[in-house]
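Each letter names a residue; the fold follows as tokens. Both lines appear below:
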Amino acid sequence: MVARTQLAALDHNANTGRQQATVPRGANQGELQYNLVFPKHTKEQVAKPIMDKQRLSEPYSGYHC
């Protein structure tokens, strides 16, 4: 269980500095991407930024599980 927690911490730390995702192609190419969410407690739409994909192979390169 401890190893699982340590791997989760490494994964989190490796992905904290991710940049916001941009539109890859089309008329809006290069613009930042957002996701509209509707929280029930505020009843207002909120635009949350979409982040780039996680890097899965880098934090585990030195570990043999």
